[in-house]
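Deliverable D4.2, example record:
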Amino acid sequence: IAQKKKVPVLYLEGDGVVIKGTKKRLEFHRYQVCEDIINLSKTRRKRVQAKEFVSLSRLDALQEIKAYLANAYDLSDTLIISNADGGAGYAKKDFDEIVGYCRQHERFLDVFHLNKKIKDRLSFMPAMQGKLISAVEFKYDRHLTDMILDTIESNLIDELNTPENHENLRRLRSYLHRRWVDIKPFKMRHLSVIKAIGCCESNHRKYTYRVKGQGKYWSED
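Output generated by the structure prediction step:
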């Protein structure tokens, strides 16, 4: 029996890619894992021992990466660093299921999706988007974040005072509160490893380049 590999850290990421289907929207579900990332140049990086698991079935992709990790690694002394948008199939509990037992699991909310969520929910008040992103992502200040949200709410007057804007703000506040622990920046966690997450979105391109755009529609087959 081959001995399972022991590594100090593993980086896990997951995300979905929606494409046009002939009958309904289809979604690629992607999970990826690597042991490290090395810099080849200022603009190019390479993942070490990288594996990807892709399926139109989220459960199939999840079971495949789960089986791979269980068979390939002994994670009892491994730090797991996971990064995702927190949506269905990509929450911390899903990554806990994928990993099983490990020494420590540090969970991160993907910054790309975090910023997009803030900008989408605050589309009615673009001048406050940058202030909120700074308070949340860079300063990681819960009190300042709540103050900015309160200020935005107090400025919902005249044409901005619509049920839709109030609902967007309520949902944004709830989103940030629920995910506050996962938002904590890498540099504030004092981990003994380098930052090697956040590339899942860019690695979509090998799939989206061929299947998205140009009026293409796809069947499940």
